[in-house]
From TrEMBL:
The chain crosses the membrane at residues 265-288. InterPro entries: NAD(P)-bd_dom_sf, SDR_fam. Its main location: membrane. It comes from the Eukaryota. Pfam families: adh_short (PF00106). Catalyzes the reduction of all-trans-retinal to all-trans-retinol in the presence of NADPH. One of its GO terms (cellular component) is membrane. One of its GO terms (molecular function) is all-trans-retinol dehydrogenase (NADP+) activity. This is Short-chain dehydrogenase/reductase 3. Keywords: Lipid metabolism, Membrane, NADP, Oxidoreductase, Transmembrane, Transmembrane helix.
Length: 315
């Protein structure tokens, strides 16, 4: 019994030390890994966060950047902008909600460009509405969740073989705390969060130490996908600019950070959500009018990808 108590006490002390060390490390500038030999694939890479991430990664001069999306014009424009920075960049039309397309495109990527060593699962859609009447629930899950399974299954084996790689899951604060009128979106992001965290543990359990996982939880992002969404005090809680978010994601990748909430205030929001009574959480949400965040989301901008879908890849 005494030994068990000692073990629990030691585990508690070790946890506190790790928390303190992580906090100090985050405030200091950690050593950054070199990306010059990395092959990076970004889903939803033509617009929004994906485009911004491509330009951020390009500043580190990786070996190659590959963009997947369904809008050829957006892909082409982003690829050209990346190439202007002196980085090889290719693109492929791919609907990540289709398992067959993902696997087919993955084979083509590996044949043309070799092993993907950094995978950014970014593509996403949002279809707000009542849970009882929303007809796009499955589409949301396929794009925001299942696509992560398929891309990871396609590219993770080679990362494990090399014991080198990084997978970035762009989740959401709505993958940690639910919100009305986007039940499907919250479900998909909670699932993506759980997938990312569990996969990280599974890799460590089988002894894979060179493949890192980063789960990103951004607050409301200032882009077309969430245009019109707001809260009661937008000056106090402004949307996150895409460029700022992508800078933070790049920094997290360079330092092998496992979890990233943007902005930093969101860590305290998560803590409050976890420890406060449900009645208190609901009262705060009502006061801040969080429950009305989605009410004015522009209908024509609810999707992170356009309806244009080509059957053949292009690069």
């Amino acid at each position: 019994m005494a030994l068990q108590k000692l073990s629990v006490a030691w585990a508690f002390i070790r946890t506190l030390c790790l928390i303190m060390w992580t906090s100090v490390r985050d405030w200091l500038k950690p050593s950054e890994k070199d990306l010059t030999e990395e092959v990076i694939l970004i889903t939803g890479g033509g617009r929004g966060i994906g485009r911004s991430l491509a330009l951020q990664f390009a500043q580190k001069q990786p070996k190659h950047i590959i963009l997947w999306e369904r809008n050829e014009t957006a892909l082409s424009n982003t690829a050209k902008d990346v190439q202007k920075l002196g980085v090889n960049c290719s693109f492929m039309l791919c609907d990540v909600s289709s398992k067959d397309q993902v696997y087919a495109m993955a084979k083509e990527v590996q044949a043309k460009f070799g092993h993907v060593t950094i995978l950014v699962n970014n593509a996403g859609v949002v279809n707000p509405g009542s849970f009882l009447t929303n007809e796009k629930f499955e589409q949301t899950l396929h794009t925001n969740t299942f696509a992560h399974f398929w891309t990871t299954r396609a590219f993770l084996p080679s990362m494990i073989e090399l014991n080198r790689g990084h997978i970035v899951t762009v989740s959401s604060m709505l993958g940690l705390a639910g919100l009305n009128r986007v039940v499907d979106y919250c479900t998909s992001k909670f699932a993506a969060t759980g997938f990312s965290e569990a996969l990280n543990l599974e890799l460590r359990d089988i002894g894979v130490t060179g493949v890192n996982i980063t789960t990103v939880h951004p607050y409301l992002v200032d882009n077309a996908m969430f245009a019109g969404a707001t809260t009661r005090f937008p000056s106090l809680f402004p949307p996150v600019p895409e460029e700022y978010l992508s800078e933070k994601i790049l920094a997290a990748v360079l330092s092998n950070r496992s979890v990233l909430c943007v902005p930093r205030l969101m860590y305290f929001v998560v803590l409050f959500y976890c420890i406060a009574p449900v009645s208190a959480v609901l009262a705060v949400m009502k006061f801040l009018q969080v429950n009305k965040t989605i009410d004015h989301l522009h209908s024509e901008q609810r999707s992170g990808e356009s309806s244009h879908l080509a059957k053949r890849p292009s690069s």
